[in-house]
Specification:
tt1808, chain A, three-stranded antiparallel beta sheet, alpha+beta
Length: 105
Amino acid sequence: MTAITINFNNILKLNDDQFYQLCRDNPEIKFERNIRGEITIMPPTGGETGEYNASLIADFVIWNRQTKLGKVFDSSTCFKLPNNSNRSPDVSWIKLERWNQLTPE
């Protein structure tokens, strides 16, 4: 399956709270938002990709448990990036010092 990107900008621009509510109201759908405010609906992955992602996350978690250098997140975590896009990478890692500087938003 391929991702579907929808541009609602001519009729509606979602602010951060509205985008968050859209995600909360539709937990079975994975949404991302790009720098232009377009909404991308991410399809589920197949078995091979899911297995690869699980192995990758396991490697990150094992490494991070040994080093205690940061925090590891899976694809269910949505990050607000400096360019105002919202992304959910397959796996992500944040240095502990940087994590401790973040606000709840």
